[in-house]
Every structure is written in structure tokens, then in C-alpha cells.
Design a protein that fits this description.
alpha/beta; 5-stranded parallel β-sheet; 17 helices
């Protein structure tokens, strides 16, 4: 926050007077310091209702200040926190997110262990395509970003750059994966002092392939202490929300351009087509396969029927049903977001990506698996105004579920880094 320079002439009247500027600056400074104090201490104590609502919704005194400073000179405007209310609906606490994100960009640093042959399964991604593309993009994006430091003493977190996806691609068995991961991490423990300093609490690894979670089973402290950034964040298999990070599973490149702002074209109530590789999918297909309002197929749409018919279905559907498959997660969720179709999450124990930042209830429908029997009635009972609001908010979050190379502000990579930045504050050493 910039300070008001003494050399500027005084501006009379209202908030642009010296007294008004100082009072406004004091108010906003107090609010800002309160935010940072709450965030850095991580203490759960109640905030005044008025402050909570002002911060969360961008309303009240802060937005009032915003309206009154439009005629002030630039050096006064710089002293006041201005909020961007256009996208605030989709965040739990938009102003806190905005301030924290800026702090992350300024100072967050990660040290990547240099050990391991990049030609095998260390350091570099296997590929940037397919349903495990998120793992590959993270490996590439972090090196393209400004978050990497070569000085481990400056690092906030330490990245263990081993790719289970590459190991799987080379045909390595589950048992050998466990041995390889164990030997690699133990070599880092012996060579460097950083793991032992926190027992791995300031270390993280990234895996989108579900075998990556199994490959770490030989090191209990890696699972228990380090930050696991995974695409299969299920509460019932050891995922710890306040420690681990849910990595969005994104099937890139997308076959067709993004959808959105096209509610008039969405005439189908609901859509799902896929393999019956889980109990909830079997029930979904059995109950709704022959329904006239829900387009539910008991298999993938055959390519013989036409080019990209599966993806085109997303463009004409209001609600895209996303049941868990062999894992709780599904790339269908990010497909739905990309194509502008409101995702209907039908998966128990699923820690949704960026759930502590984004309010999923503002752009999706989150149901329990037992709700599958009332699915059509639940969707039909949603008023048109709510559908339009959900759709508009969905368009706002599309950028958060897109990978880019090099990475762009607020894209999937930066959201994952923000989640990591949040977690590094609770590490004590």
C-alpha cells in the first residue's frame, strides 16, 4: 500500500481532503492489518458480522470508500484498497484472496531438488496431453514461473520432482514404483538437511495418476507429513484437506473452444455418457438411461456416430452429471466447466479443487450419491434465475481450471501455487 506523499497539494472536500484521506487510509489499513493478522496467525476466532460481510461480498464501508474516491488524484487512490466486485461472487472471501495472492506473487519461493536423471522419471513431465496432463503441466509450469529459487535457504517449500505418470508410462510395476520413490526420497534425506528439519512438512510432491498415491506407501512419513498434491483427493483414503492439495484433473488440449454466455442454446436438462466403472455410475445408468429429459448413455458416444458428438453435447446441456469413477475425481468436471455446462457433482468424500478459495455452490450443484434417485426432480426444481446465475459464475471460474505454457495469472498452476502458499504458513521449524 503506497503512502501519501507530503509534497502533493492538499485536495479540499470530502474524502479527498487531507483529513478525509488520512481517515480513509486509517480505516482501510486497519481492515488490511486485520486480514493479514487473521491469515498469518491461523487462529479461529469470530469476526464481527459486518466485517465478515464487507470482506466477503465487497460491500458496506469498503465499497463505499471505492465509490467516493473516483474523483481523487492517483496518489490518493493508491492508498486505498479497491475491490473488483465483478467476480467476487465465486470466492469465499474475495478481498482476502486478492491480498494474499499478491503477497504470494511477491515472495513465495520453492526449491526443486536437482537430483535424478531427467531422461528417466525425474524433473521433467511425461507429456502435456491426456487425462493426466495436470501433472505434466505442473512440472513444466513451475520451471517457467518466478517461484523457483536455487538457494534452499530462501525456499518456503521443497518440491520432490518424481513423476509417477512417467514411471507408469515406462511399464514399471506398482511394487517397483514404491521402491524407486522410497530410495529417491531417502537419498534426499541423507544428502540434504532440509527434510530432517521438519520431517518433510515443508516438502511436497505432485501426482495426477492414481498410482502415484500408491507409489508413496513405502514411506509413511512422506504420506503423513508432506503435502500431497493429487488428482484423487478422497477423504476415505487418507486425503487430509488442511495439509494436502486437490489437483484439478484437466484433459487438455480441449477438443473445442470454451462455452458460456449461451443459456438460450441449452435445451437439454442433463447429460452423462461414460463407462460403468463404479457403483454410482451403474445406478445412474440403470435409473435414468431411458429417461426423456436426462440424456444418459450406458457407454461413451461412439465416434462412428459423428465427430466430437460427446463434446458438442456439453454445449446444449444445462447440467452435466459428474459421478465418480474408479476414483472420486473425474476430468468430466473440468470439461463441464470449460464448455459452460454446470457440473453436477455426484461423488461422496470428494475434496473439490480449490474448495477453500472458490465457493462451488455458486457455479455447480453438489449432491450426495444417494440423491441419484431424485436427480431429475432436483434439477427441474432449480429456478431459471438460479440457473442463469450459476452459468454466469461458471464462466468466471473457467480461467482457474485451464493450464497454460507459460502459466498465466490466476490459471490452474497459480491456483495450485496459492494453495501451497497457504499451507506453508502453518509449518513450524
Amino acid at each position: 500500500m503506497s503512502a501519501v506523499k507530503q509534497t502533493h497539494p492538499l485536495i479540499p472536500g470530502g474524502i479527498c481532503s487531507l483529513r478525509g484521506s488520512l481517515v480513509s487510509l486509517a480505516v482501510v489499513t486497519l481492515v488490511t492489518l486485520s486480514i493479514f493478522s487473521i491469515n498469518s496467525l491461523r487462529v479461529a476466532f469470530p469476526r464481527p458480522a459486518s466485517l465478515s460481510s464487507d470482506l466477503a461480498a465487497g460491500t458496506g464501508k469498503i465499497s463505499g470508500i471505492k465509490e467516493r474516491v473516483t474523483s481523487c488524484p492517483d496518489y490518493v487512490k493508491e492508498t486505498i484498497v479497491l475491490d473488483d466486485a465483478e467476480e467476487d461472487d465465486v470466492y469465499h472471501t474475495p478481498n482476502v484472496f486478492r491480498l494474499n495472492y499478491e503477497e504470494m506473487e511477491r515472495g513465495f519461493k520453492v526449491f526443486i531438488y536437482p537430483d535424478g536423471d531427467p531422461n528417466t522419471y525425474y524433473q521433467t513431465p511425461r507429456k502435456l496431453t491426456g487425462k493426466y496432463a495436470s501433472e505434466g503441466y505442473f512440472f513444466q509450469n513451475i520451471r517457467e514461473s518466478g517461484f523457483v529459487t536455487d538457494d534452499p535457504d530462501r525456499a518456503d517449500l521443497f518440491f520432490i520432482p518424481i513423476s509417477s505418470h512417467k514411471m507408469r508410462g515406462k511399464g514399471i510395476s506398482y511394487e517397483n514404483m514404491t521402491i524407486i520413490v522410497k530410495d529417491y526420497v531417502e537419498s534426499l534425506m541423507q544428502k540434504y538437511p532440509y527434510w530432517n528439519r521438519t520431517l518433510g512438512a515443508d516438502h511436497f510432491f505432485v501426482t495426477c495418476h492414481d498410482v502415484g498415491v500408491r507409489a508413496t506407501e513405502g514411506l509413511p512419513n512422506l504420506v503423513k507429513n508432506s503435502i500431497r498434491v493429487v488428482c484423487s483427493p478422497s477423504y476415505d483414503v487418507g486425503f487430509i484437506p488442511h495439509k494436502d492439495v486437490a489437483l484439478p484433473q484437466v484433459l487438455q488440449p480441449f477438443a473445442l473452444p470454451s462455452g458460456g454466455n449461451d443459456v438460450e442454446n441449452r435445451t437439454t436438462l442433463g447429460f452423462w455418457a461414460g463407462h460403468r466403472n463404479s457403483r454410482i455410475r451403474v445406478i445412474l445408468a440403470r435409473v435414468w438411461e431411458n429417461d426423456t429429459e436426462l440424456y444418459v448413455l450406458n457407454n461413451r458416444i461412439s465416434r462412428a456416430e459423428g465427430s466430437l458428438l460427446y463434446q458438442k453435447r456439453f454445449y446444449i446441456t444445462k447440467y452435466c452429471i459428474c459421478p465418480g469413477g474408479s476414483q472420486v475425481n473425474s476430468a468430466r468436471i473440468t470439461d463441464s466447466i470449460h464448455y459452460g455446462c454446470i457440473p453436477v457433482i455426484l461423488s461422496d468424500y470428494y475434496a473439490l479443487p480449490f474448495n477453500d478459495i472458490l465457493n462451488w455452490h455458486k457455479f455447480s450443484i453438489v449432491l450426495r450419491e444417494k440423491d441419484v434417485y431424485q436427480l431429475k426432480q432436483i434439477l427441474k426444481n432449480i429456478p431459471q434465475e438460479q440457473f442463469v446465475s450459476l452459468h454466469n459464475n461458471l464462466v468466471k471460474v473457467q480461467k482457474h481450471f485451464q493450464w497454460n505454457s507459460p502459466p498465466l495469472k490466476h490459471d490452474a498452476f497459480h491456483m495450485v501455487m496459492y494453495e501451497l502458499w497457504l499451507r506453508h504458513h502453518v509449518i513450524k521449524y
